[in-house]
Every structure is written in C-alpha cells, then in structure tokens.
Amino acid sequence: xxxxxxxxxxxxxxxxxxxxxxxxxxxxxxxxxxxxxxxxxxxxxxxxxxxxxxxxxxxxxxxxxxxxxxxxxxxxxxxxxxxxxxxxxxxxxxxxxxxxxxxxxxxxxxxxxxxxxxxxxxxxxxxxxxxxxxxxxxxxxxxxxxxxxxxxxxxxxxxxxxxxxxxxxxxxxxxxxxxxxxxxxxxxxxxxxxxxxxxxxxxxxxxxxxxxxxxxxxxxxxxxxxxxxxxxxxxxxxxxxxxxxxxxxxxxxxxxxxxxxxxxxxxxxxxxxxxxxxxxxxxxxxxxxxxxxxxxxxxxxxxxxxxxxxxxxxxxxxxxxxxxxxxxxxxxxxxxxxxxxxxxxxxxxxxxxxxxxxxxxxxxxxxxxxxxxxxxxxxxxxxxxxxxxxxxxxxxxxxxxxxxxxxxxxxxxxxxxxxxxxxxxxxxxxxxxxxxxxxxxxxxxxxxxxxxxxxxxxxx
Length: 460
Ligand code: ADP
Known about the structure:
Layout: H1 4-59, H2 66-71, E1 81-85, E2 91-94, H3 96-99, H4 104-109, E3 114-121, E4 124-134, E5 140-148, H5 150-198, H6 216-266, H7 270-301, E6 309-312, H8 313-323, H9 325-330, E7 334-339, E8 344-347, H10 349-365, E9 372-380, E10 383-389, H11 411-416, H12 423-433, E11 437-443, E12 447-455
Parallel strand pairs: 7-9
Antiparallel strand pairs: 1-2, 1-5, 3-4, 4-5, 6-8, 9-10, 10-12, 11-12
The structure holds adenosine-5'-diphosphate.
C-alpha cells in the first residue's frame, strides 16, 4: 500500500493536471478565436477600403482596375486576395488565386454575401468573407476576400508549444512542493511513532515530544500523552494491587502450610492423611504462584533492583544442576552438563540462578522418566549461549508463540502437569533485564531446547 504522502502527491497532481489541461485548452481556444476575430476585423476594413475604391472608379466612369483596387488593401494583411463579380456574374477584377475557386459558389451568395468562414486552397487554410457592394447606379457587386490563416496558426502553435512545456513543468514543481510540504507536516508523526514504539506496558514513563506548532498534530500528541498518563496510573495501580495481594497472601499461606503439617503428623487415618497431603501440595502451589507474581511485579517495576556483579555462568549452571539433582533423580533423569567455554557476565546472580532453575525445572517437569537433560554453555559469534535441551514431548507449534506470556500454559500442561504459567515470563524478564534474549526450538515428539543468549561483554 502506498504511503499517505505518495497518495496526496498523486491525487493533488492528478487534480491539478486536469485543471491545467482544461485551462490550457480554454486559453488556446480563446487565443485562436481572438486572433481570427482580429483577422476578420482587418478583412472587414479591407472590404470597406475596396468598396470605397470601387465606387470611386465607377463614379469616374472607369472600369474597375485590379491594380488600383489592390493598392488599397491595408498593410496589416498584405497577403489578402480578392475577387469581384458584377450582378451578371461576370468577373470584374480578380486575383488568380481566388479566380480558381468554383464559380457555382458565387450564385448562392450573390444577394446576401456570407459570414466569415474557412476555406482550404491546396494545403493552406484561408479566412474568407463574401461582401455585397451596392454602387451608386444601383448595380450590385459581390466581393470575395480571403486572407491566409498561417499567421494565426503559427501564433497558436507557438502558444501550444509553450503550454505543452509549461504544464508538465508546473506538475513537476507542484509534486516536489507538495511532497516537501507534506514531509515537513508529517515529520512530527515519525517522532510520535518512535515514542509510541518505545512505550510499553512495563515502561509508560516516556512521553511524545510536543512540537512547537499549535496544530492538529499537537492536539493529537496532547491527547496521546494524556492517554499514556491514564494508562500509566492504571498500570501502576494494577501492579500495586498484585504486589499487595501477593504479599498479604504469603503469611496466611505459610501458617496454613504449617498447620496442615502439624495435623498430618497427628492423624493416623490414611484417608485423612491423603487429604492433608493434597492440601499441603495445593498450598505449596498457591505459595509458589504468589511468590512468582510478587517477583514479576518487582522485576517489572524497576531495573535498579538488580545487583550488578560479575557472575560465572559455568558455576551457575553447575550449582543449578546440584540443586535440582534430587528432582532429576526422582524421575531417573540424567543431567548432562557441557561447559564448552568459561563465561562471565555482570548481573544479578540470584535472578540469573532463578531463570536457569525455571528452565531446568520445566525440562525435568515436561520430560518422561529415564531421559537426559543437557545443559550447554558456549560462546557463539558475538554472544554467550546457554542451551537447556530435554527429550520430552516438545511444544505444539500452536503453543510456541505464547509460552513466554503470563499465565499461558500449553494444552498438555494444563491437564497433566501442575503449574501457573508464570515460569517462562520470569525467565524472559530476567534475561531481558540483563540485555539478553531467550528463545526456544521445539520439535513435537523429540524434545525442546531453550536458549538464553547474552551479548559478549568486554571486560572492564
Ligand atoms: P508452567 O510450567 O507453570 O505451565 P511456564 O511459564 O514455565 O509455566 O511454561 C509455559 C508453558 O510452556 C507450559 O505450560 C508448557 O506448555 C510449555 N513448556 C515450558 N517448558 C517446556 C518444556 N521443557 N517442554 C515442553 N513444554 C514446555
């Protein structure tokens, strides 16, 4: 689709072109008409002069002389030719050019004459008029005067050439001017788009810069800024609510957990013990969820919370394996740690530990018994890569685009594996806060590999 700028330039050029073409055609037509009218007036003066000369010659009893008649032709139309026929149809005086015209025409105009018209002789067009001339003795002559239209045609041709050059030039200039004006007018929109792209749910502190003009775009900017302001307040209130709620839930959940354990130690009835155990695991799940929510809102709120210190990623991976060795042993899953490069980044060790633990827990959670989970650390091109690969069922392609979103769980996980759908969102947030990115490659039936990539940092 074409940009708004292109569309405005094209539309205005088309409209302008139509107006110019209509205007030019009108001007050319008027110019031609005016030139022909001027020629008609000259021919009329010529006719009057010829008439006066003819009357004078006849009153002197002289038979009309071509030479004398010709001498009265006005100098403005030196190329005018004429022919005179008396009332009996006899040619009185004629120019050879006019004499060659068909005589039949004379009879039709003998009494009235004819209004000015156009006559073609050979390849040349002539303006022609027929004028009846009544002389003193009551005799009537018909005078036919023609004048070539070549001067009118060449003047019109010159004007047409000027118009043909001027119209495209005017269109080009209009196109350039419109394009420049629109570019200037739209420049603030580029700023609005850039800022709007920067603003997201996590950071609504940015504002669209207010231009100097007080125009429609300034009004749009004010409206958008006011909207972002309201969104910021709404998001802040929502985050605060979640943080408060998670915080308030923690103590009662801890108390509930210890009360359930206390009761469990005192009951012998197997059914009651099973119910209490189930209660304990549900409380654990709820507690884990509130902890995750609290962590996410904290990670969202500000970046400054991170402690920045050198962290050895190889040691971090080894520690994660140690911590989750028990969970792996429960399912007889082999943990295979491959350290190809010793890597260090500046970051928050606890948070990074949490991100890797989440991925490793998922790998164990979503893998069948007696399989292998591989953790690999290496440098690839300009980044450090941590890969955690399992031999589980993989993630269906339909679920892949959403698994890093909050509270999103895969179709299989929803029915078979406990969880809240917050683990991967925490991983992504922690990795992003460290300037990295997380991605997944998964083949249903073959397993999934989650990759964390950090840019290689030059030691300071
Ligand atoms: P949870 O595990 O609590 O559901 P997560 O945010 O950790 O939440 O994961 C989101 C979803 O991604 C899971 O519900 C599951 O469908 C899918 N998933 C994550 N890790 C794996 C894995 N290693 N193998 C298969 N599916 C996975």
